Amino acid sequence: MSTVFVDTIKNQTGTTSLAANKLPDMLSGSSKCWSNIDGTGTVNLRDSFNVSTLTDSGTGHYTLSFSSSMSSSNYSPVVSGNIAIGNSGRDVSCPATTNSSSQVGMKCFRSDNLTAEDFDFVMAQIDGNLA
């Protein structure tokens, strides 16, 4: 294995730079996983980063498996959801339900009556450290 020593990292044009000693801070503060899920009909990923699979685990319940595992289950998942424009008067919630180093579960429901519901948009972001 080779080692590279640098003081500054620059973009291709040389107009933006990052001191090499700041790279660990920048990486530790970045999102390690994110997804935009179509949670209705045939559940699928519209787009994602560091997601190997999406599982439809029941009405309003989805599980994301990570391509690269987190260092522990003590990461910070942020999940939100949105339903169709015509139903926008309802309050909705999508908390993370289970965390492990390899996946996160989330369950979306209506806040007004706590009924689980498939949402048109389910967005998840995972902040923490990779293994």
List the helices and strands and how they pair.
Elements: E1 8-10, E2 17-19, H1 23-28, E3 31-38, E4 44-49, E5 51-56, E6 61-66, E7 76-82, E8 92-93, E9 96-99, E10 103-107, E11 109-110, E12 121-127
Antiparallel strand pairs: 1-2, 3-4, 3-12, 5-6, 6-10, 7-12, 8-11, 9-10
Descriptive overview:
By secondary structure, the protein is mostly beta strands. It has one domain (31-127): Immunoglobulin-like. 5% of the residues lie in helices and 45% in strands. It contains 1 helix and 12 strands. The protein is elongated, with a radius of gyration of 18 Å. The model has no long low-confidence stretch (mean pLDDT 85).
Compact overview of the structure:
A hairpin with a 4-residue loop joins strand 5 (51-56) and strand 6.
H/I helix tally: 1
Order of helices and strands: EEHEEEEEEEEEE
Spatial sequence of strands, sheet with the most strands = 4-3-12-7
Mean pLDDT metric: 85
In the residues, how many domains can be counted? 1
- Secondary-structure content class: mainly beta
How many beta-strand elements? 12
Biggest sheet record: 4 strands, antiparallel
Proportion in helices? under 10%
- CATH class descriptor: Mainly Beta
What portion of the residues fall into strands of 2 or more residues?
over 45%
Q: What ranges have pLDDT less than 50 throughout 5 or more consecutive residues? A: none
| Radius of gyration from the alpha-carbon trace, in angstroms | 18 Å
CATH architecture: Sandwich
- Shape call: elongated
CATH topology: Immunoglobulin-like
What is the terminal separation in angstroms?
Answer: 20 Å
